[in-house]
Amino acid sequence: MKAWIFDDLPGDQRAPHDQADSHPVELASLSKLGLIAMSSVGMPEVENVVKERNYKNRDVIKVSKEGLGDVYEEKLRGFFKEHMHEDEEIRYIQEGEGYFDVRDSTDARWIRVAMVPGDLLVLPPGIYHRFTLTESNYVQAMRLFKDEPKWIPYDRSTETDANPFRKEYVEHVLAPLAA
């Protein structure tokens, strides 16, 4: 797992967007944004996280052109739309690779987190983010849930900014970083 400031240049969302002058981001600093980032972990470590965080359900999602067929591009565009969830979003990469982009503490720049097999990422409720595949166009990821499996995105808007989960994230995570 590696992270850097997304260069925001036009081009394929699946490209790395890490120009020579991109700034690397230390994985440890992602915790300041409320993320849990674990690199090169196996199933025993995943099971420890499951127990510690009280996850009760899981499933496996495969995202590829072959698997999704005609809706592949539409799905990928949907994942890449800036959004938040009212639940933690937990992904453990089993095969393939992908990028999670999260907003930095200023909410002005994207931090791109590159994930490969063995990487686990927990995003807190209320954080704005997006996801895309790499140019390999394939990922298989385990999704973990505290309750029944659900994935409800709330696209960024004025209304979503007023969502109680977003407000709590801003108050407890972003505001202290700005102080």
Features:
179 residues, alpha+beta, five-stranded antiparallel sheet, 5 helices, 11 strands
Brief synopsis:
By secondary structure, the protein is of the alpha+beta class. Helix content is 24%, strand content 31%.
Tell me what the structure shows.
- The protein is an alpha+beta fold and 179 residues long.
- It is built from 5 helices and 11 strands.
- The strands form 3 sheets. Strands 2-8-5-10-3 form a 5-stranded antiparallel sheet.
- A hairpin with a 6-residue loop joins strand 6 and strand 7.
- The protein is globular.
Can you lay out the helices and strands and say which pair or pack?
Elements: E1 2-5, E2 36-38, H1 43-53, E3 57-64, H2 65-68, H3 72-80, E4 83-84, E5 89-96, E6 98-103, E7 110-115, E8 120-123, E9 129-133, E10 138-145, E11 154-155, H4 158-161, H5 164-178
Antiparallel strand pairs: 1-7, 2-8, 3-10, 4-11, 5-8, 5-10, 6-7, 6-9
